[in-house]
Design brief:
- This protein is an alpha+beta fold.
- The two termini are 30 Å apart.
- The chain contains 3 helices and 4 strands.
- The chain has one domain.
Length: 104
């Protein structure tokens, strides 16, 4: 968890160091009020495909405990689906540009 937080801080610092890239954070589709409001997080490339809770059902037993039945693979997910949101695409592009500029 600390490694992820450190990576977010480094990514954020790299972007905020470039005024033109930082300004992109305030434009659609991100619409941050100020660039500094972004914490450096980029959503994952894939999301779990979970059929909106169809894969599991829960009920309360007589003793008050919760009984959960999972799908046949005993998992909450039946795979992954790509995260193709515009927000992720813009954050990846901005971050990549910031890293490219740091290396030159």
């Amino acid at each position: 968890m600390l490694d992820g937080h450190r990576a977010n801080q480094q990514r954020r610092a790299a972007v905020l160091a470039q005024p033109d890239l930082a300004a992109e954070l305030t434009r659609p589709p991100l619409n941050f009020t100020r660039p500094e409001h972004w914490n450096g997080y980029i959503p994952p490339a894939t999301w779990p495909l979970d059929d909106r809770e169809i894969l599991r059902t829960s009920r309360q037993a007589r003793d008050g405990k919760l009984i959960t039945r999972y799908n046949q693979g005993n998992a909450r997910s039946c795979g992954d689906m790509p995260n193709s949101t515009a927000q992720r695409a813009v954050l990846v592009a901005i971050s990549q540009a910031a890293w490219d500029r740091r290396e030159t």
